[in-house]
Design brief:
The chain is mainly α and 103 residues long. 47% of the residues lie in helices and 6% in strands. It is built from six helices and two strands, in the order αααββααα. It has helices at 5-15, 25-32, 36-48, 66-72, 79-82, 96-100; strands at residues 52-54, 62-64. A two-stranded antiparallel sheet has the order 1-2. The radius of gyration is 16 Å and the shape is globular.
């Protein structure tokens, strides 16, 4: 079974030892640099294949299953465990054109 890049990034975030046992979608987004929508799609795909599961807390938290941890540690996906999160975009950045618009 092949994982998409988003699924591999999410599964790696859920399997890292420095994170708590279960993460919220927001925490997974921060760890992977993915959008909330992409993270949710990846989590649901991983859940469907039995590699991750949702806990019954509010807010919902997610964790990797034993099968998911074994999968992410295979040689083909192991690099995702050592990758660092990509730099986040500044929410207040403005393009040069928007700064020149006169009202």
């Amino acid at each position: 079974m092949a994982l998409t890049e988003s699924e591999a990034r999410v599964l790696a975030a859920l399997s890292r030892p420095e994170f708590p046992a279960a993460l919220t979608v927001r925490q997974v987004c921060a760890a992977t640099g993915l959008t909330a929508g992409a993270t949710r799609r990846a989590l649901h795909g991983l859940s469907h294949t039995g590699l991750a599961l949702s806990t019954l807390h509010t807010p919902a938290t997610w964790q990797a299953t034993q099968r998911g941890r074994l999968t992410i540690h295979t040689p083909i996906y192991r690099d995702y465990l050592t990758r660092r999160r990509p730099p986040a975009c500044s929410p207040h950045s403005r393009s040069p054109l928007s700064a020149q618009v006169k009202t």
